Amino acid sequence: MPIYEYKCNTCKKEFETLVLGSDIPACPGCDSKDLSRLLSKCGFISKSTGSGGESQVTTSAASSACGSCTAGSCSSCGVG
Ligand SMILES: [Zn+2]
User: Fold this and answer.
1) How far is the CA of 8 from the centre of ligand 1 (A)?
2) Taking a C-beta distance cutoff of 8 angstroms, is the pair 17, 3 a contact?
3) If you placed Cys at 66, which of 10, 12, 40, 77 could pair as Cys (CB 3.0 to 4.6 Å)?
């Protein structure tokens, strides 16, 4: 099902809608057709790993593994 995500340029409302063929959707808020199509969430599966943005969990109970690391590569708990 071709569900696209749009943002209305008039009222800045973001919404998802089903688009059939060359159908042009209208904003459910203000009925404007001045829309920008956003990237679908389905095509946005990219997880950044180890770029410094991940949260690090510090636990004193588990001394051998911090619970959030993969084996052999954890700088927070010292495994490896
Ligand atoms: Zn609108």
Assistant:
1) 5
2) yes
3) 77
> Residue 46 corresponds to which amino acid?
S
Cα–ligand 1 centroid distance for 63 (angstroms): 54
Which residues, 6 or more positions from 79, have their beta carbon under 8 angstroms from its beta carbon?
A: 64, 65, 66, 69, 71, 72, 73
E strand segments, the chain? 3-8, 14-18, 35-38
Residue 61, pLDDT score? 45
Ligand 1 geometric centre to CA of 34 (Å): 8
What pTM does this model have?
Answer: 0.47
CB neighbour class for 35 (10 Å; exposed up to 12, middle 13-18, buried from 19): buried
